[in-house]
Amino acid sequence: MSLSKKWKLYVLHHSHTDIGYTERQEKLKRYHVDFIQQAIDILKAIEDGEHPEWEGFRWVCENYWQVENFLANSSAENIASFERYVQAGLIDISLNYLNMTELVDQDVLNHKLKEGRNYADRLAVPLDSAMSADINGYSWGYADALAENGIENLFSCIHTHHGMFPAGKKHNGFWWEGPSGDRVLTWVSDHYHMGNELCLVPGHGITYLLEDRFNEKAAVSDFSITEDRIYQYIGKLDSDPEYEYDFVPIMVSGMSTDNGAPNGRILERIKEWNERHGAEIQIEMITLNHFFEILREKMNELPVYRGDWNDWWADGVGSTPAVVKHYKDAQRKYHIGKQLSPELTVEDKAYMKDVEYELALYAEHTWGYSSSVTEPWETLVNDLDFRKSAYAIRANQLASLKLDEILATKGEVSIRPEREKLFKVINPLGIARTDSVCLYIEHWEDVEGVTVDTLLQNIEVVDEKTGEVVRTQVREIARAKEVEIVTHLEAFEERIFRIRPKKKLSKENYQYLAVDKIKDIMYEGWQDGLRVNEHQIETDYYKMTLDETKGIVSFIDKQDGRSLLRDNLIHAPFVGVYERTETKPDAWEVRHTMGRNRKKVGTKRYVSELSDIRIVESGEVSATAVFTYELVGTQMYEIHVKVYRDTPKIDVTLRLHKDSVWDPENLYIAFPFTTGETEELYFDKAGCVMRPGVDQLPGTNQEFYLVQEGAAYVGTEKSFLIALKDTPLLVLGELEHHLIELSGQNKETNNAEPLYVWAMNNFWETNFKVDLAGFYEFRYTLSVVSKKEPKEATELCKAYNQGFLSMYI
């Protein structure tokens, strides 16, 4: 093959970190410590003359997590050798912490990146690059996090299975501009095993992306395959008029597997190649930071892309919805603790290190063992699933213990006999707001000598500061009475409330309340501020009309008379849409061919059918309507809609009993809302607030998004908030199988399409948890507020998710 110029093929040697995909998580931790040691041993063998044929060996630690574990589990002598080689430029450290999903929040991401930055600074080595492998994107705030920690370059090896690289091409450089305006030089490379595909590793070749007539010889890396594939690979770049360089970088693993060891024999193949073909294509093994030195020296003007690099692989969280809910609770407690008491959290270095480690490890991109779908009964599959869950569980335990410690300093006491019924309510955020909060009386307690069961509705709550008696609603829950109030608190305000018997016992007395206690006669003034029955839900803020077969058919904002339901809605609010694909020919193959749709043309789709509406509670504070649906794939699908008299928030709870099904499945929940005005939709992602389909890199995913706190429709006069406590995946647009439109391909964007919560899925063919069965409770809050700036609006979503805290004092 005739080439137009002499080429340089730069090889970056690394081990792809996939924690829990090929082995037990703790075993892989040990492996990666040993891989660094093996790299040290290879370099020593070259120095000592044992393997001169390996001269030119370089090793790139794919992430700082590998280095962190090496430093914690190696001898002083080995650490000294490692640091000597790092300072000599023979071992390189990518300052990325791990290959993450967007589940990680900006605080944890920043702090983990800073650990690598601090280590590099301590060694006084000019490390300013990060690489990632496998994952298909990063939150827009990631660019800022890199820049903030002195990481100027990002090398991305995307695995395009069920995904795609941005801007429609690989081997592509650009400046990625973060929300703050800081820029990171970014190179989108090929798959991280491309060096193995080119058969540069004797005995460890693969055929995955490249298909040719030498497949049967590729596994043993026959040199003739190396020749054929490299000339074809370079030849395509050489004939591409848009590729202006005379070099190209590729990654290589020492073994044809994730979590593979270093391999000095790659240098034997490189040497053989250079002796035969070096005049046309020279191969050199270099480090990550060295590559960016070369790129910066030779690059011309590069495009600047500003926006979110939305991850195609974020949907793994939907395969473990129960544990993700537990993880989100851990995140909230971690943040609440820091907000309430920086001196007991941030200054507790051991706590911060431990809790952020667990939060980071659960957010790492691996979502199970490689045969989780095809062999769900296997012991190792389930062992690794338990271990993955343990990261979220430990994070929640640590954050809960720290929050308990903080609340104790604020006066919280343990249960005790004959205690005064005093409660402290705390606003944990720096936003003044009105919200509901629940106070709890244990089932065995009394109130000033009178048993709770005797009092029930005849207790009241008084604000100790003002003496005001506030509206109160009592309900029975397991082992306690829940006393709900609504109050207003300033930023970080703490207020004390007392529960006491009413001075005058009350009894319901409505003009049209019959002896059968059924309220089915409409008249003005019935339960002022809350008019709730099987046909309507009306407060001072909203008016909903209910249909016995469709559910909510009208939803009006009473402040301006506008509808809060989209004109282009397909499904009524909170309707469940369940998808199931027949397993043909097997559990692996049916999923393998689903692509970016996460479904097939033949996927069966079922919409929940409303079977009952009932009012389970209506009182001084709130009223709750329960919508019971029949939905294929579930034994129970219940939506609880709770409205309030004195606040415009609406709490929505889905109670679900999911069947066990091995077929590929999806479950969506319809949220077809709008401000009724000219508006834009914003999502709160890690480190940024972005408009889906608008604030994105060209050619990126606009099918679904993993958000942090929720979504906000920002109109000209008001904002509609959707706070997501438990299920962070959102889908825009049609659910049917369709041709995928990437961001920037069409003038129209998905920003104005109907919104769905993607509650669960099990479509991936390798390492998703395949069994979604069980009981679930997923919680959401809706609210219409005056117009807010996008960041303010999503901060209110965070406020609703965190809620007010209450405690015994």
TrEMBL record:
Database matches in SUPFAM superfamilies: Galactose mutarotase-like, Glycoside hydrolase/deacetylase
InterPro entries on file: Gal_mutarotase_sf_dom, Glyco_hydro/deAcase_b/a-brl, Glyco_hydro_38_C, Glyco_hydro_38_N, Glyco_hydro_38_N_sf
Domain named Glycoside hydrolase family 38 N-terminal: residues: 9-305
GO molecular function, one term: alpha-mannosidase activity
Domain Glycosyl hydrolase family 38 C-terminal: 537-696
GO annotation, biological process: mannose metabolic process; oligosaccharide catabolic process
Pfam families, per database record: Glyco_hydro_38C, Glyco_hydro_38N
Protein origin, superkingdom: Bacteria
Protein name in UniProt: Glycosyl hydrolase
Naturally occurring in which organism (per UniProt): Listeria fleischmannii 1991
Classification of source organism: Bacteria, Bacillati, Bacillota, Bacilli, Bacillales
